[in-house]
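Sequence only, no structure available. Ideas?
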Amino acid sequence: MDSMIRRLRAQGRMVIGPTVRDGVITHDQIVGVSDLPQGWTEEQEGGSYRLQQTGTDELFAFSAPSQSWKQFVFPPRSVIIRGRREASGIQIEEPPVDTQSVAFFGVRSCDLAALDILDRVFLDPEATDQHFARRRADVFVVAAACASPGNTCFCVSMDTGPSPTSGFDLSVSELMIDGTCSYLVTPGSERGAALLELIDTRPATDRELGIAQAQHDTAVDSMGRSLDASHPPLASLDPDHPQWADVAQRCLACGNCTMVCPTCFCSKTEDRTSLDGLETERSRVWDSCFTLDFTAMHGTSTRTSTASRYRQWLLHKLVTWEEQFGSSGCVGCGRCIAWCPVGIDLTAEIAALAQTQSHTQTETRPQKEQKA
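Reply:
I predicted one. Tokens follow.
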């Protein structure tokens, strides 16, 4: 692993990978294995996150880091234009986009799926986002199979994990064999295969391949949650369904779920002007459909209740996203559950909607039969 990181840095790439910082496993620049969360895992539940030591030398014993890779290709704030009033007139400039070659090291399969979704949104041939395109153009991806799904994970339900299948240059599976960590590496592109040729490796044995498959099967079976987005038929639910009001009583409309979501891409523009009035800049900033003014038209919000905003978020994520982009907007990473201050659980809300709808249909069916 250390050799792989060194080789990537020798190519002039900034390597970004998982690391322990501020009491969480997050993403930051790394220069070697010593920066990775060796011997650390985490325990995640609704509204709860806690680091724990594993007592092993494993580098990837955690599930999904606290934040996704979205921030590196779609920054929380980026300046679009700057303006300055000078004697000769007003000068306008577009700040250059940082296009340094980077390598994403240790990308989980759920986050690979999320990057693919962002690509479909921002690289649409008819509406390409040039800022995103420049940042995404030369990203080398080293994926990492997930052997320890968290309590909030449900990637199997969304068909996005736990093992990477595409979208990577190299994929790594960390195997514990006789108390020692070994790494099974699979190339996924020509440049990945070329890098692998520079590293001291050997062919995997049948035993090692079997251990990797068994590890995958165990991860599938130990998934913390599941989600069946096909039931109930969400698009047909009554806007006044009582479950929306129930979740609104708990939801703070803080937008945490959209901030940590690896696929949410809503943004707004903000203008800032210096106090002397000589300089100004316009920035694109992450926004959330949970903010009151997100859908403001003519100075008035069209979704004034928390219930309506939660319903918009959930239905867009699981229903209309399919219509827009051909896939669900959820990849099953579980971050929205762990980082919700009150522990609202997307999978539990879907189950409650299904149960309530089923109960309502059971109650109304005899009445319809009696009338018939």
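The chain is about 35% helix and 25% strand.
Hope that gets you unstuck.
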